[in-house]
Amino acid sequence: MSTPTTDRHAPTAAGGQAAPPPATRRPSRVPTWSVARERLLAGGFMAPAVILVTLFLLAPFVWTTYRSFFSDTRTAPFSWFDNYTLFASDPALSRSIQNTLMWVVGTVVLPFVLGLAIACMTNAGRFSRLVRLCVVLPYALSGSAVAVVWNFMLTTDGAVNQVLTGLGLDSLAQGWLLTWPGNTVVMILANAWQATGVAVILFLVGLQSIPPETLEAGSLDGAGAWQQFRHIVLPQLRPVSIIVIGMSLVNGLKSFDLIWVLTQGGPGRATETLAVSMYNETFLELRPGAGAAIAVVLTLIVLAASWLYLRRQLDVKGV
Questions:
Q1: What is the pLDDT of residue 304?
Q2: How many CA atoms lie within 13 A of 120 on its CB side?
Q3: Which letter, b or e, does each residue of 275-290 get, where b requires 16 or more Cβ atoms within 10 Å of its Cβ?
Q4: The whole model's pTM is what?
Q5: Which of 40, 206, 221, 244 is deepest in the core (most CB within 10 A)?
């Protein structure tokens, strides 16, 4: 009696030949020395930047923070938070904080609004290049040069008062840099005259990157010019808006050169911002401890404002 045999051979492929067994794949291993070499090369390329940032940013900030806890006497004893209490007791520093807040609002709102409006109006037009050149040109000037130009215009016998007198508007002529808060407002306008140029450039780049098909689709759906601007253009300009507002925010908090050349923080100390107060306390009043405390507070304000703004804007649902 014969028993049936079981065919244990591998199934045959077409043509009657047995298919070869699947080859076992071994995971490829990168040699340890190769990984180490790549990391060393990456560290070597990053080392100069890390060293420069440490030497010129981190080390001075650590030393400034350390110095802010010492008094300004010859022996410089440890004074804890005495230098920081000046913000509550010194009227000049209280006014400096007010001026800094005014500068932040003015240097954020004016360049943003003016830059966006000018960019939209000059995005396409016959004389758009000439207009953009006139607006962008002040950005190429330094803050000191802008201050010299506006000082010529805003002094008591300057160009603005002469024009008003020539037009018969003598009652409007005044000392533009002599009374607060008008002197701070006109300096903010001077800063906006310079800072609007970079906002125009950035917004033009954003406008030219918008696909024209989206605008055409909006017009076919019956959207007017304002509706297209609000629902199509503005959302696609959000990345550029983040950059413009962030730059304006930091520049407004650290404004110095324009204020110093125009008024040197005066009359008295009426137009000082925190950056000007830091310089005044350290180098003119010879109070390095108080100046260091102002520098630390200003740095923390800049970092906190930038972090909060960017954290809110650059989220998962945003850019």
A1: 86
A2: 13
A3: bbbbbbbbeeeebbbb
A4: 0.78
A5: 244
